[in-house]
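Notes to self after the Tuesday call (sharing in case useful).
The group wants a holo model before anyone commits to mutagenesis around the pocket. I volunteered. Ligand is 2-keto-3-deoxygluconate. Logging inputs and output together so the record is complete.
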Amino acid sequence: MRIVSARVIVTCPGRNFVTLKIVTSSGLTGVGDATLNGREMAVVAYLREHVVPALIGRDPARIEDTWQFLYRGAYWRRGPVTMTAVAAVDTALWDIKGKVAGLPVYQLLGGRSRSGVLVYGHASGPDIAGVLDSVSTLVASGYQAVRVQSGIPGLSSVYGVSSDPVYEPASSALPATSVWSTTRYLGYIPTVFEAVRASFGPSLRLLHDAHHRLSPVEAAQLGKALEAYGLTWLEDPVPAEDQSAYRLLRRHTTTPLAVGEVFNSVWDCLGLISEHLIDYIRTSVVHAGGITHLRRIFDLAALYQVRSGSHGASDLSPVCMAAALHVDVAIPNFGLQEYMPHTPETDAVFPHGYRFADGYLHPSEEPGLGVDIDEELAARYPYRPAALPVNRLEDGTLHDW
Ligand code: KDG
Ligand code: MG
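Result:
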């Protein structure tokens, strides 16, 4: 069997998604997510210009060799654009391998280690009352783990906070601006968690995403202040590339730490994992080189008792979610999977067999990944440029968001 063609499909059923579809000489096809939020067309060009021509004629069964060919062979390694493109090819090849074997992909990864994949949903509101309502809605739908984000008095908008459950921050063609104050944030967030714990009791798992906005000592203060509320994790407390900050953080707080949604390779994760500086590694199939490389990162993490906590925001397509679930259900050191349901329009473009029940997601039992793209429907939603927002301090200084 040979690869005879590969199509890069861009569609915008409410938000932009990029999908690679690989077609083989036997007629079997495989799909991979190639979406890089706000930078979609850079990956499209990388795939169309540099990757697809080199795939034609290759044996689709040689997943590892193809990965090495695209990663090492390019000389210019790592980075979000490259690794998203490599991920799309790798994911599509695992899909094809599953179809050839007549098995769901998790069986090729060693089979089930658990009966389902525990997920966390997103609760947010403009203030404590709104947050409590949002947590109640998730708990009533069966969620056992909830990420809690809140608006901050005095700030008109905060990234990650919306009353609409289908939250889409990349909405305008050019970046919108939010205004940020760490002082206001640090003063309010502990009171939000105090209220959530008081209302929902000790067994609901709670998480919080600081979205890279804090300095090391501010993050240490927040970690300490949240210890009383028993978080499952505090995510991205400082900019992810400032890795030595985690040594300082660890000295001051026992709140578990989760990092990795902007990491692209095992090299980004190596120090944090091997020095026991984090508790959960949040790399994803689509941004960390596909199933092959994500598995490598999680195997490294397992040696140091670090568990997975994969990124699963709605800007990762159902193709990525389908692939993530096969990995999650198979690895020994699974922690938690992020889950933001997609819109009905997106679900229709990407028919899939995974399902949510009682706080868990379950991978499809179909051969391969159990997800596809309806190309005719996808063509009805043309690409619309959409940028992520920027964050500025009250005096106008550009800040991390
Ligand atoms: O595209 C960026 C989003 O996926 C990211 O900001 C969402 O932080 C996020 C999360 O944890 O889901
Ligand atoms: Mg995050």
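Two things stood out.
The pocket of 2-keto-3-deoxygluconate (ligand 1) is lined by residues 37, 209, 211, 261, 311, 313, 315, 338 (CB under 6 Å).
Residues 68 and 74 are 9 Å apart (CA to CA).
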